Amino acid sequence: MFHIILFGPPGSGKGTQSEKLIAEYGLIHLSTGNLLRSEIANKTALGLEAKSVMDKGQLVPDEVVIGMISSQLDAHADAKGFLFDGFPRTVAQAEALDKLLKLKNSGIGVFLALDVSEEELVKRLLGRGLTSGRSDDTDEAVIRARITEYNAKTTAVADYYKQFDKVVNVPGEGSIDDIYASLKTQIDARMH
Ligand code: B4P
């Protein structure tokens, strides 16, 4: 099993690159953002709780997100590997993932971190907000709150994986295809 974590701030290109990576490597794509939006669309109790948090640009409680990932891992027990997109976003989520996958020393394949400047992130997300209908993309204050939440709670996740030598930083500005080529080079160097 080879697992990839695609990491980076909101709007760094995780969702965009994930679509291309799963097509290439045949991994199961687990995006906690997509899973949460699907709960919201289906008007579940979990979705109602998540929506009020997401609309403020904050992180959904760890136990909710970990529960969702746990069910997905069970549902895809025969997968050849997972591509985690937007998860883990806290150190508690990272530790829970190790337990769920029964990994020693965070034995994932690679942790790919996309680097993008804050101004570029805001520009991209406001741009997506014009067409996506995502309520967390239309208000610049909410976008800035998501970035603040990332800096406060999520950057520590990269430090967690650094102790196991899993982190590779990849420039996330430039063309989508060039960024994809850089990600692919890093994965191929570790996959075989
Ligand atoms: P996510 O759905 O993970 O969303 P994201 O951070 O906005 O997105 P992503 O990085 O995937 O955006 P993409 O680049 O595809 O999270 C949303 C919310 O859900 C969070 O704020 C939180 O509340 C909650 N949540 C999710 N996971 C959680 C967890 N584990 N724990 C707690 N809460 C959680 O797209 C951005 C835009 O950039 C697009 O318009 C795209 O077209 C564009 N773009 C991409 N690459 C580009 C490039 N190279 N150049 C120019 N534009 C580009």
From TrEMBL:
Q: Which reaction does it catalyse?
A: AMP + ATP = 2 ADP
- Indicate yes or no for the key word Transferase: yes
Key words of the record = ATP-binding, Cytoplasm, Kinase, Nucleotide biosynthesis, Nucleotide-binding, Transferase
One MF term from GO for this chain? ATP binding
**Binding positions (AMP):** T32, R37, Q58, L59, V60, G86, F87, P88, R89, Q93, R134, R146
Functional pathway: Purine metabolism; AMP biosynthesis via salvage pathway; AMP from ADP: step 1/1
Residue numbers binding ATP: G11, S12, G13, K14, G15, T16, R128, G174
Provide the E.C. number(s) assigned to this enzyme: 2.7.4.3
Tell me the segments the record calls region NMP.
31-60
Q: What is known of its domains?
A: Consists of three domains, a large central CORE domain and two small peripheral domains, NMPbind and LID, which undergo movements during catalysis. The LID domain closes over the site of phosphoryl transfer upon ATP binding. Assembling and dissambling the active center during each catalytic cycle provides an effective means to prevent ATP hydrolysis.
What quaternary arrangement does the UniProt entry report?
Monomer.
Biological role: Catalyzes the reversible transfer of the terminal phosphate group between ATP and AMP. Plays an important role in cellular energy homeostasis and in adenine nucleotide metabolism.
- Cited HAMAP family: Adenylate_kinase_Adk (MF_00235)
What name does UniProt use for this protein?
Adenylate kinase
Species this protein is from = Panacibacter microcysteis
Q: What is the lineage of its organism?
A: Bacteria, Pseudomonadati, Bacteroidota, Chitinophagia, Chitinophagales
